[in-house]
Amino acid sequence: MKSSLLVPTLLATAGALSIVFNSSPKTELSTRIAKSKDRTSTSSRLSEIGLDSSIDFEKFRTKQIVYSASIGFPSLLISILLGIFPVSALIFASAISIFVFLAIDRNLTQKVKKQRLMIDSEFPAVIEMYSLALSAGETPLVAMERISNSARGSLAKEFASVVAQVKSGKAFHLALDEMGRGIESLLIRRFIDSLIIATLRGAPLTEVLQRHAQEAREAQRNRVMGAAAKAEISMMVPVVFLILPISILFALWPSLANLNLIAGA
Fold first, then answer.
1. What is the CATH number of the domain that holds 211?
2. Residue 89's CB: how many other CB atoms inside 10 A?
3. Would you say residue 239 lies in a domain?
């Protein structure tokens, strides 16, 4: 009986969509994506992984909507066909769609965190290479270009972007400042600020870079020690809740068996 409501539900859904989309669906979808309230937050996260254009934002948001609809709509149809009340089926399908939408957003956040950790882990080695190049007599821009050409990684790509901006006519310190603002890392932000100040004032860069390299190594060591401490706590969970109770059971089992024999006699 409830499955007979499937056709009216589909027709009502099509009518509602035709009312909402007063123009072509593709144009309406692009317009609504452009007016998204969390555009700034999502765009900033996308820019950290190299997707900094408005087209990339539209592709990401379209992916979220299409995936949510392609999973939520079949869930609605299957729920109605199984005899679930249409309102309950609609709530269930909406919950699944929201879950898929948030899961894709969370996946983006995880990629951004991974990107930040990768940049922080690359920073000590890259800054030491930069310090050696400056000690050899190269200018800051030439040394940065050498690293961007020879090294592989996220930070080397950021250096390449700075070099490209300077060659296109932008001031070196402005390109550095834009790089520092685009990367959510306290170490790199401090390094960029020190490099800008030293460049504008003509201060020696080697000592500044060596100090930042040492701080980066210490920060990396502290990060590794923190991860090791968390892993140690995680390893204690199976020991305390699995291995230790089994060991106690094996130790007490003979005594319990003897007590049962004595009680039976």
1. 1.20.81.30
2. 23
3. no
229 within domain boundaries:
no
On whether residue 105 sits in a domain, the answer given is yes
Q: List Cβ<8 Å contacts ≥24 apart for 126-133.
A: 126/151, 126/153, 126/155, 126/156, 126/159, 127/191, 127/209, 127/212, 127/213, 127/216, 128/213, 130/209, 131/205, 131/206, 131/209, 131/210, 131/213
pLDDT in tens, 53-69: 778 778 888 888 888 88
The total number of structural domains that make up the chain = 2
Write down the mean pLDDT value for the chain: 76
Distance CA 265, CA 259 (A): 10
Domain region containing 73: 2-112
Using alpha carbons, select from 68, 62, 66 the residue that is nearest to residue 94. 68
Strands (E), 90-199: none
Where do we find the tokens 């940049």?
A: 119
